[in-house]
Amino acid sequence: MDETIQFIANWGSWKAIKKLKIEDATEDKTVMEFLASLEMGIDRKIEENLRKIVELDKVDAAIAEIQGGKGKEQVALAIAEVGSRKVNSVINEICAKPELQKNEQKELIGFCKVYAMRKALKEAGLEVDYSGIKIPGMKKNKKKV
Question: For the segment 65-86, what is each residue's pLDDT rounded down to a tens digit?
Fold first, then answer.
């Protein structure tokens, strides 16, 4: 029996086919790298689509007001600020869409809170996902100009 992990996306401009055939000789490290590459692509698409629904620029601006720098103090400040009334009010404002039901608005708020926390912690120098890891053989996406 063939064991595989497959991911196929064919939606608009997003064309992605990722397959990994798992055999006895397949190393756990190979599976780990494959899954990390999937996670990075999916996270990017979540952010792109969230940005189409709500004004994430407002969240970015609220986070930018947090004192810059790296280190433990900055991480603690980022956590406190993202949980603050200021950032939460921005998130609540951009998610208060009258065309959405309350439970849909709450879902968007959840996505925005995760986005805000990840962004603030990254800016504080904390690695919160696998995007900063150099994986040999994995192509990095070119930055948009």
Answer: 876 677 778 888 888 888 888 8
- The tens digit of pLDDT for each residue in 20-79 reads 999 989 999 999 999 998 998 899 999 999 999 999 999 999 988 876 677 778 888 888
Tell which residue, 86, 105, 103, 87, has the closest CA to residue 95.
105
Q: What is the DSSP letter of 54?
A: S
How far is the C-alpha of 100 from the C-alpha of 106, rounded, in Å?
10
pLDDT value at residue 107:
96
Q: How far apart are CA 46 and CA 102, in angstroms?
A: 21
Please give the Cα distance from 116 to 108 (Å, whole number).
Answer: 12
Q: Which amino acid is at 16?
A: A
- Take residue 93 and report the two structure tokens written for it: 């404002």
SS (HEC) of 120-136: HHHHCCCCCCCCCCCCC
> How far is 94 from 92, CA to CA, in rounded Å?
6
SS (H, E, C) 71-89: CHHHHHHHHHHHCCHHHHH
